[in-house]
Specification:
Blueprint (H helix, E strand, L loop, with lengths): L1 H82 L22 H16 L1
């Protein structure tokens, strides 16, 4: 008579063990997923900061390059004025504000070309 009770307890123990293992593995998987999510968020945040720093550095380099080109153009214009009695052309100098566009649009280039053609026609 004891054997059926022992066998039933063994079967119930197996079932409870399986349920317990399933619950623990779900919690472990959930924790692992949360850890991976936090890691991905940290990596994304770091990537955004790296991109922002890179863009900021490129902007500074472009502004520095523009300043150097302006100095070269000013020197060219001064040399042109001092060496020639009637200077034919002068290079434009411009300082770009940090909030200005660094690259002119196609419309601006077209308008500039049309103005130059009008000046040459007169």
């Amino acid at each position: 008579m004891d054997w059926p009770l022992i066998f039933a307890a063994f079967i119930i123990g197996i079932i409870l063990g399986y349920i317990g293992r399933s619950l623990l593995s779900r919690n472990q998987n959930c924790q692992q997923t949360n850890d991976e999510l936090e890691q991905a968020k940290l990596e994304l945040s770091q990537y955004k900061q790296d991109v922002s720093d890179s863009i900021s550095q490129h902007r500074k380099l472009l502004v520095s390059l523009n300043e150097q080109i302006d100095k070269v153009n000013e020197h060219w214009n001064e040399a042109n004025t001092s060496l020639l009695e009637n200077p034919k052309s002068q290079l434009p100098t411009s300082s770009i504000d940090m909030n200005d566009k660094l690259i002119p649009t196609i419309d601006e280039k077209t308008k500039s070309a049309e103005e130059n053609l009008d000046k040459n026609a007169t």
